[in-house]
Amino acid sequence: MQKEKLIITKKAAICRFFFTFFFMKKNILSYDEIKSNAQNYCAYQERCHMEVENKLRTYSTSKEEIDNELIKNDYLNETRFAQAFSRGKFKFKNWGKMRIKMELEKRKVSKKNIDIGMNEISEEDYIKKLDELFQKCIDKFQKYNKQQMKKKIFDYLNYRGWEYDKIFNKLNEL
Questions:
Q1: pTM for the full model?
Q2: pLDDT tens digit sequence for 98-121
Q3: Is the separation of the CB atoms in 134 and 157 below 8 Å?
Q4: Which whole-number Å values give the CA distances from 91 to 19, 38, 125, in the listed order?
């Protein structure tokens, strides 16, 4: 019985060693180097607090001190992140407000900042983008019968987070 435990513990120790040696990132850096890396990480593009915390977790150090420094020096700003995220996903990924809001909530952005980010999208641009996407879908799914085309258009727009009532209003126009 003890011999089995000994074998198991040896195997566990060997596995633990190889795992830590090959797979774990051992970053033995000074506080200033970690702070510099975090500043570069935040300066490259807008980041939310969760992304920065995950990055700092790879360095075994106190996250609060560096996090506070980044906020104080304006490297990390959740409001600015929410605004940039909303604009970018709407403009380039053609996401609707529901999807953008859901993704911001997933990144643990505060309700207030989500609302500020949503205000970055003007209603006229929103309707114009929906019209463009709808026309693109009609051209793309022209080969299907009317019922299948409506289903495909609905699925396309729904996946991208457009509101149901706006989708149905456009589909009823067909």
A1: 0.77
A2: 999 999 999 999 999 999 999 999
A3: yes
A4: 43, 28, 10
